[in-house]
Each structure stands twice: as C-alpha cells, then as structure tokens.
User: Fold this.
Amino acid sequence: MRAAIYARVSTFDQEPENQLQELRRYCDARRWLSVEYVDRGVSGSKDRRPALDQLLTDAKRRKFDVLVCWRLDRLGRNLKHLINLLEELGAIGVAFVSLAEGIDATTPAGKLQMHILGAIAEFERGRIVERVKAGLERARAQGKRLGRPRTTPSKLEAPGGSVRKAALVWGVSKSTAARWISEGWVR
Assistant:
C-alpha cells in the first residue's frame, strides 16, 4: 500500500518530528511506501491548509491508498470538517489510520469505528437542523420578519436607462432596484 503521512503543528516554533518519527515507524512496520505532508504554523481549525490541500489533490489523483496521522486533532479540530474530510477520502477509496485513537480503517473494526463516527456526525447535523427550524418557526410565530432587512429609500432620482444601470447607480442588486421602481420609489 501507498501511504500519505500527515503531520501538523500550530506554531512555527514547534517541530512535527515526534509525530513524523512515529508515523514513519508505523508505515515501515506495515511495509507501506509513504510520502509526507506537513503543515507548520497552521491551526487545525482552518479548513484550508497548504499541505492538507495538496494531500487532497493527490488523493483525488490516487497517489496513495491510506492516510495516516498521529492523532485526529492533527487532521482537524472541527468535527464537521474532520468527518467531511474523511467521508471525501472514503468516497475516493482512501482508507484512514489515526495512531493515538487506534483507528485503522484498513480493517473491518476500523471501518466500523469510522461508520460510528459518521453516524454521530450525521445525528449532530440532524439535531442542528431541528434546532434551526424550531427557532425559525418560533420567530415567525412571534411575527418577526426573517431574512435580509428590506431597504426602502426615500424618493430616488431615476438614472434613466435599464434596471441594471439603476442598480449600479444606487448600489443595490437588480432585484432591489426593480422592486423600488415597481413600488414607486423613483421620481
């Protein structure tokens, strides 16, 4: 198997070498060929990271079969991003291993762990949707207007020409300009 090793440190004065040594030993023990992707000085809360972005590009090009990281929090601190990333990798056939948590999705037990993590994330997404819908319904029941606030100008001078030109002159969208014209806000 071909492995991608991913390591990350949050600050430039930290060294990823401890992570890398363990990851290299693991890949050597499994007789996997490996290539390394290292992000230095990048927070795990960021979805976009130079080495991680390159890793994803290479995964899509099928340059490796398994992603190996030291701990889940090295790959991402945001559960939603982490689950989405692992689902994306799984969809293109890339397995996942996290040494500290003992997750090895190259085995049936590891695949079960990944399915459980995915189910938990899906459950949490569903709960968030329920809470948002309940909040919107409550706001509507209280008579609150939802969405962007409507802007209503004082009388406007018509710039002449098209609705697009009016929108540019007034600094609003075409639909807002069209609504203002139809509602009689223009002299």
Summary: The mean pLDDT is 88.
